[in-house]
Design brief:
CATH class of the largest domain in chain A: Alpha Beta
CATH superfamily of the largest domain in chain A: Type I PLP-dependent aspartate aminotransferase-like (Major domain)
Structural class of chain A: alpha/beta
Distance between the termini of chain A: 30 Å
Organism (chains B, D): Streptomyces indicus
GO molecular function (chains B, D): iron ion binding; iron-sulfur cluster binding
Order of helices and strands of chain B: HEEEHHHH
Number of domains of chain A: 2
CATH topology of the largest domain in chain A: Aspartate Aminotransferase, domain 2
Shape of chain A: globular
Strand order of the largest sheet of chain B: 1-2-3
Number of strands of chain B: 3
GO biological process, one term (chains B, D): iron-sulfur cluster assembly
CATH architecture of the largest domain in chain A: 3-Layer(aba) Sandwich
Bound molecules: pyridoxal-5'-phosphate
Helix content of chain A: 25-40%
Radius of gyration of chain A: 22 Å
Oligomer: heterotetramer
Structural class of chain B: alpha+beta
Number of strands of chain A: 17
Number of helices of chain A: 14
Number of helices of chain B: 5
Pfam families (chains B, D): NifU_N
CATH class of chain B: Alpha Beta
Distance between the termini of chain B: 31 Å
Strand content of chain B: 15-25%
Helix content of chain B: 40-55%
Protein name (chains B, D): Nitrogen fixation protein NifU
Number of domains of chain B: 1
CATH topology of chain B: Sufe protein. Chain: A
Radius of gyration of chain B: 14 Å
Strand order of the largest sheet of chain A: 4-10-9-8-7-5-6
């Protein structure tokens, strides 16, 4: 078996993930390389969910009975864990949402309804990039249609990096918000935060970072990023579906208006007017995803017990190996950086004329799960003139043997359609 | 799902290329980027030609080729019956095992029965058929407005 | 033991709910009477969650690998189950949200951004009632502040019913939307739908029904209700947290604009513009609560295996008995209807001068879980001039013995503070 | 959590009723509707009276009564020390077991140690104390503006 420096003890880790034992199509063991879409869940997270529902389930806040107090302590305890995980200055800056998409929409909506100096209107501009996930494009298109603000974006270089050469024309005095992805889910590119944040600060624009593909894979320090908001999603980082996070700077969360209205987010309500609870509750209307927050807390514990530096090193090793091996496959073209430097563990590629659907399907017949399509980042496909890509994406339990299986699978695909 | 017949049509598509027609449509499957441009040529109610260009996966390409085989030369009513049968098969989620009667109607197209088990691929198989239906409605609708409603 | 007509076999049913075995405070068995806040979950639902995560977990839609297809089939299968449960004319009318609050906010936001004839603006009016949950008040206050629309409401009668005497002045030609609760979570009142819907239809207003406290407890038929939208929440009906439902009439879902933007809700995206998928996907941005939908599907299966008529009959019997027994407690005053007719299984009351916090706490010491406070319906407390209430709420596993325990507990409270 | 001492203060509150004062505040706990109107009367920096009216649970009522007992007659610096100690105890989540030194400062108020285990009730216990802090800031802030900042 291939030995690479920096690998985790995947034999031990894989025992924690029941889904990885799945056997498909008469005896083929699952090779799960669709981690950028969603990760598998360790036993520890599933146990936390079951334990919550079996023993502590109650609605949170304001309850004086034991179960309500336990549920509240568990829910708020999960917030503490997430705050620590991202090095938030205050736990009250951590808002639980349903997914990263809601987190991103939440910021767009806050700014749409905000007063000066935050207000986005027809005299202002919004900046994103051409490599955003649709969830960081459509909310801004909607905001721009509804307020008249101008939507601008950074283009891409031929090798899959952000083209920041015209940064001073893209981000201007009119810019109110710059929202960009830290690690691209389609290209794998890890973007340079500092240059963008510096320019945004120069013109007084807010910065929102979509860390959906970063939080699961590397140490994330919201203070070091110097952004104003950071969004990510639970299901890609060993957590349950149905939970996302928005971190925001406290003073902004105080100043900005609420989004969803309802129970939990209020201070006091009368028929004619209401006042709102302080953040984070101000942005958490209704019964929150209680069990899902508890599950995310358990996921964070799990990841931290391994260590995010080690997870990152492991994935870097796997990615280096995968890039090297994939480039050996004839007619295979990587869409995105062709080195493992400043890139995450999602690798998109085309394989000659063979359509990604066919690539994915034939790989599936061998038990290898990859994703095919535009990966909710269609502008990237348009930019590179391709209808779709095949994407293999790795995580802390991925092994060099799985990379080998992928490469072998691709050979089979080539023969099949050759 | 990749029957030999399907791979054959994919590798050697029948009737591919755009030729003269009465109506042209362009259909896209937005989830995977499969595209087809398709033209129909009628002589009265008889299908004189179905010509097409497109890009996409083996299923969508092979399906267009099979369509060309099956429909060219047929009367529109007969063609609609074939289209209906193919649609039924594709929407069967693998529950229809084509019998002799169906094989008589669909010929090579019965090879797509296996595709119907894969919801993500059914749209690929139907792309050209939906385009044909649309193009026919345009072509015949213009010369015989009475038929338009049924399209 | 008390025998009442219409009771379910609670001995068998309670075996399905692990949390009901919980023992508190050195040996006191949990008496869970906080079902209006959230219900406990049957083993069948927990098993569905675990099975989903252990075997089928993947992101839904567009995947060509086995897990993605299974996850999609399970997620969409849950939609079929919910559609059948509420007798929806089409499965595509069932939108999954994160909770009822999001469902209600979704409608408010759709109408805020809609074109004519749906558009809510400063020339139009919104109608709610004084017994709404905050989640059906605050979204309309926000919409009214942001559009200039006038917010109006139906008041309450002294016996806890809607005062519809001035219905023709409240709902007028200017009314665009009437949103009201089917069963009140604080008063227990079951509201008369027909009169309101008839008047709304007369003036061409849309009708949104908050069925959060109805869906768990009785047969719900959205066609019979004749409303345009119906909202409810999973966690109160044996389902997981993190999932809610909005049902809406197909033509409305087609005409109205989207709310959250992102992956899954689009048809095609370019940097400058996007088109949207048809409903329900148009309203489901980002990775949906997949496991939670699967869990809700299992909850619906569970409830239907018992039968919603039977659940309703059981709760009616328990509620009749509870009303009768509670009225025997000296100084106890029920806030809401004092009969079991046209009311749900949530009973609010005051106990002399003893503050509900103290009532709840002393009951908790006996293992009895009730909720105290304003139950996210503060205008009701204001209306009846009380700071808060104690609320006992029942479900399909509640027993007459638990009612007896409550009454005994309340005697103890009276002695304690007497 | 319902110590005998707490129940006593609840049933027989000390110093209840509104009397003459230098400043009045009205505090509400929005989550449970507990309310207090509280007045402070200073003679120099000595607390001459704390009078109050309110409605709420036994904990919030008893806590106001204990506050009256403890603070009336004290100098403001001493009172602030007591308030700080009480706050510390209430925020301890049941982790502080009051020792003799603390009991010396808090007297009857140590009975609230058990309440600190119940997050939903801590606000009740603190309601009157927060009101007092506010009223003091107003009363002394006006006559001695230099002190305002620290309030
Ligand atoms: C009548 C009513 N409406 C709306 C809600 C809000 O539900 P959720 O908190 O799940 O959003 C509730 C429950 O809290 C309710 O009882
Ligand atoms: C970069 C990026 N941003 C946002 C999202 C949206 O996350 P979610 O679908 O959980 O809302 C994803 C994943 O789908 C992503 O990869």
């Amino acid at each position: 078996m291939t030995q690479l420096p920096g690998l985790l003890d995947t034999e031990a880790i894989r025992k924690d993930f029941p889904a990885l034992d799945r056997v498909l199509h008469d005896g083929k063991k699952l090779v799960y390389l669709d981690n950028a879409a969603t990760s598998q869940k360790p036993r520890q997270v599933l146990d936390a969910l079951t334990e919550y529902y079996e023993r502590h389930n109650a609605n949170v806040h304001r309850g004086v009975h034991v179960l309500a107090e336990e549920a509240t302590a568990l829910y708020e305890g999960a917030r503490d864990k997430v705050a620590e995980f991202i090095n938030a200055p205050s736990r009250d800056e951590v808002i639980f949402t349903k997914n990263a998409s809601e987190s991103l929409n939440l910021v767009a909506n806050m700014l749409g309804w905000a007063d000066e100096p935050y207000k986005v209107d027809h005299e202002t501009e919004i900046v994103i990039t051409e490599m955003e996930h649709h969830s960081n494009i459509v909310p801004w298109q909607l905001l721009s249609q509804r307020t008249g603000a101008k939507l601008k974006w950074f283009g891409l270089t031929d090798d899959g990096r952000l083209d920041l050469s015209n940064i001073d024309e893209v981000i201007t005095e009119k810019t109110k918000i710059v929202s960009f992805v830290l690690v691209s889910n389609i290209l794998g590119t890890h973007n340079p935060v500092e240059a963008i944040v510096r320019r945004a600060q120069e013109v007084g624009a807010l910065v929102l970072i979509d860390a959906s593909q970063a939080a699961p894979h590397m140490p994330l320090d919201v203070q070091a990023l110097q952004a104003d908001f950071v969004a990510f999603t639970g299901h890609k980082m060993c957590g349950p579906t149905g939970i996302g996070v928005l971190w925001g700077r406290q003073e902004l969360l105080e100043d900005l208006p609420p989004f969803l209205g309802g129970g939990e987010m209020i201070e006091t309500v009368s028929m004619s007017s209401s006042t709102y609870a302080p953040a984070p509750h101000k942005f958490e209307a209704g019964t929150p995803p209680i069990a899902q927050a508890v599950g995310l807390g358990a996921a964070v514990d799990y990841l931290q017990s391994i260590g995010m530096e080690k997870v990152q090193a492991h994935e870097h090793a796997i990615t280096s190996y995968a890039v090297k091996r994939l480039l050996e496959v004839p007619d295979l073209k990587i869409i995105g950086p062709v080195t493992a430097e400043d890139r995450g563990a999602a690798i998109s590629f085309t394989l000659g004329d063979i359509h990604p659907h066919d690539v994915g399907q034939v790989l599936d017949e061998q038990g290898i799960a990859v994703r095919v399509g535009h990966h909710c980042a269609r502008p990237v496909c348009l930019r590179y003139g391709i209808p779709a890509t095949t994407r293999a994406s790795f995580y802390l339990y991925s092994t060099p043997a799985e990379v080998d299986a992928l490469v072998e699978g691709l050979e089979h695909v080539r023969n099949f359609f050759g | 799902m990749y029957q030999e017949v399907i791979l054959d049509h994919y590798k050697h598509p029948h009737g591919r290329g755009l030729r003269d027609g009465d109506a042209e449509v362009h259909h896209v499957n937005p989830t995977c980027g499969d595209e087809i441009t398709l033209r129909v040529k009628y002589e009265g109610t008889r299908i004189a030609d179905v010509s097409y260009e497109g890009q996409g996966c083996s299923i969508s390409q092979a399906s267009a080729s099979v369509l060309n085989d099956l429909l060219v030369g047929k009367d529109v009513t007969e063609a609609q019956r074939i289209q209906g049968t193919f649609l039924e098969l594709m929407q069967s989620k693998g529950r229809i095992e084509p019998d002799d009667a169906m094989e008589e109607i669909l010929e090579d197209a019965v090879a797509f029965a296996g595709v119907s088990k894969y919801p993500a691929r059914v749209k690929c198989a139907l792309l050209s058929w939906m385009a044909w239906k649309d193009a026919t409605a345009q072509a015949l609708g213009e010369s015989e407005p009475a038929e338009r409603k049924s399209a």
